Amino acid sequence: MRLFFVKDFLDLVFPRNCLLCGSSLFDHENNLCSVCKGTLPVTSYHLRAADNDLCDKVMGLSNVGMVMAYLKFTKGGNSQKLLHQLKYRNKPQLARELGSLYGKILCENGFSNQWDVIIPVPLHPLKQSRRGYNQSEEFGLGLTEELSVKLINGLTRVKFTETQTQKSRLQRMDNMDDVFQIAPYALVANKSVLLVDDVMTTGATLCACANVLLANGAKNVDLVTIAAGG
């Protein structure tokens, strides 16, 4: 009885609301209500993981295999709202829940034993210090819960990059030169790697990371993001 009272009191002082619609969450809901989860713009990239428009986008930039994204990115849509929560509203637990949700989909579609290790795209240490976490790492940790694959921080970001917003596809790739390095003691040789990030636009950042992993002996690298646009 006392536990229920404490819980009711905490819910009153610190209400738990859906991060999309603002409605009160039930006990079994974490960051998103069941209605909002049911209306997320989930993609079908996992059904044609090695032959889709995301694969076409990175063609010629890196020799990666499969390319997938959990959500379709649309400006002003729910996927953009979720990414805003991750980057600016201190919601690492949301990224982990999204990873778990997509991990379930991947498991249901035969990807359970596909990879040896999950590696997130790293933030620059100063940016991660300011934000307090790397949303790509949190997304990857959510994936590990379902895929039972170990996550390692196998890459380091060694310099800031200029904003990519106004750059062309090739300019973005040039802007990524020498940005990433293999992390000390990261063993990727002969391993199948799932490289994860929060969002994919041109794919320049992901391809720069993939090229470092492949240059250090990774057997193959596949890409997964929370969201991707057209």
Automatic annotation (TrEMBL):
SUPFAM superfamilies: PRTase-like (SSF53271). CDD domains: PRTases_typeI (cd06223). Residues 143-228 form the Phosphoribosyltransferase domain. Transmembrane segments: none annotated. It comes from the Bacteria. It holds the Pfam family DZR_2. Residues 9-42 form the Double zinc ribbon domain. Belongs to the ComF/GntX family. This is ComF family protein. It comes from Algoriphagus locisalis.
